[in-house]
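Working notes for the structural subgroup meeting. M.R. asked for a predicted model of this chain before we commit to crystallization trials. I am recording the input and output together here so anyone reviewing the notebook later can reproduce the run.

Input as submitted:
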Amino acid sequence: MASSPASVAQGPMMIGLMFNFILLGVVMTQAYIYMITYSKRDKSWMQSFVFIIVVANIVNSVFIAVDLYNALINNFNNTAYLAKATWLFATDPALTGIIAAAVQLFFAWRVKVLTSNWSLTTIVCLLALTGAVGGIVTAVEIKTTPSFVDFQKFQTVVIIWLVASCLGDLAITCILVWYLRKHKTGFQGSDELVDRIIRMTVQTGLITSICAIVDLILFLANPTGLHLIFNFPLCKLYTNTLLSSLNSRSGWAYSNSKQSHSQSGLTATIGGTISDGRKQRTVNATITTQTRAEVFVHVEHHELQDRTTTVPRFVIQQDGNERDDIKSPVWDGKQGQDDIV
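Returned structure, recorded in token form:
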């Protein structure tokens, strides 16, 4: 049984479009969370950047969907049309390369802010721009050589595009992990936060790198459009990497705030006079728990000539409310004069 002409490219395109739309839904959710959380906190240029990236992703999905509709509905029996790529299809590598480069340039900016190292920042920027140029040139080559089975003729450009994108992801991941591990503080709370950031950085960097590598391997090994299953979702993966990185800031803040509230908010002031037979010691202890469970104790010594008994007074302040608990000490007639229970 002869295979359908659409199985060469349109079949893998349909599967890739499904993943594309699924990830687009994730992108929209992430974008919504970002806007309601950081619309009044982030600078206008960053909000505009996120908006442009999201719009580019929507345009990418719409163009692919329209192209598939034209191929599978309007030209279902037109084998000549099914065998060639259209300009709508050619926009995918261009938009993917541009979106990936924009995300990598954003992380290059983060590298510059964190490390103040222009050499590392320049390396990431060069790899990002190389990937963007590779994607745009691939789009031009598709327009020049529209036949799907002839895509191998410009495989050099595709290799440069995908390898540069993959190396850019790995460079960003390695630099950020190196810097974060180098600047651990030694405190458990902050080190756990750094470890979470490292894990997220590695995971997001590996996802895009693996997807790009699999896309490249399938493109070189199979002359059909099988690689499109991994190529179509690629720009959405980059966008989700960006948005998850931005949105996770509130999660880190919430984690720190929660930990701080669990360890702070209790202040106790304890005062009393203790007799040791020859002198009396007045002890005022203020215990305050902070984020690092610090305890501050202030002790005052007063020598008095007369022996007196003072009932210990406990003033406990929690959440701004004071409460006095007066407890009388229990004395046993058989006990010594210097003992207090």
